[in-house]
Amino acid sequence: QVQLVESGGGVVQAGGSLRLTCVASGRANSRILMGWFRQAPGKERELVATISWMGGRTYAIDSVKGRFTISRDNARNTVFLQMNSLKPDDTAVYYCAATQAIIATTQAHYDYWGQGTQVTVSS
What we know:
By secondary structure, the protein is mainly β. The protein has no helices and 11 strands.
């Protein structure tokens, strides 16, 4: 089993920054790849970024490139999502997720999920 606990959400004005944190525990071989997803009201959950624990290889969707950065601290089993230049369209519940897969870009591929943290960007 894997447990994921997110924190760091909040309310921020457009142009502001937030850093989300996800602390992972449990079987390391069940969380090869970590992802951040988000779900806005009335919309489907979408992938935002991924990072591999071993090599640190990252991926991000086009709409957040240049603004969001995913990183990890292996020693603390922690993954971060630094979000800069936030826009109202970034408002959503953000979820941390883990998978044994090496590459996974849809939520169906992820086995473990955190409880989510709300990010609200005001205009």
